[in-house]
Design goal:
Structural class: mainly alpha
Largest sheet: none
Distance between the termini: 59 Å
Order of helices and strands: HHHH
Number of helices: 4
CATH architecture: Orthogonal Bundle
Radius of gyration: 17 Å
Helix content: over 70%
Number of domains: 1
Mean pLDDT: 88
Shape: elongated
Low-confidence stretches: none
């Protein structure tokens, strides 16, 4: 079976990262922005696993970093969803433009 070249994997990862960046900067819905951040983190995970496989196949450093990032992303998503729910309860909207009117 033929192996996929590293450049193809990096191209997919770069495309995912920039799609996530586009979604983060152009959307006003907080849930969509959270999904864009998660997409960017997943593209970084693809990079870690790909570089680990092609550069240091005997080590598992890239896999360990990926597991750590997945753990941090889960905690970040839980906190972000709690903030979004709190914002919706107070303003009845999850639009970022409405969040600028919040009084801290």
């Amino acid at each position: 079976m033929s192996e996929i070249p590293l450049t193809h994997i990096l191209f997919v990862s770069t495309a995912l990262f920039f799609i996530g960046m586009y979604g983060l900067f152009t959307r006003r819905n907080m849930i969509t922005m959270l999904m864009a951040v998660e997409l960017m983190l997943n593209s970084v995970n693809i990079n870690f696993v790909a570089f680990n496989k092609y550069l240091f196949p005997e080590n598992l450093d890239g896999v360990f970093f990926t597991i750590f990032i997945i753990t941090i992303a889960a905690a970040e998503a839980a906190v972000a969803i709690a903030i979004i729910i709190n914002l919706y309860r107070s303003h009845h909207s999850i639009d970022v433009e409405d969040a600028t009117e919040m009084k801290w």
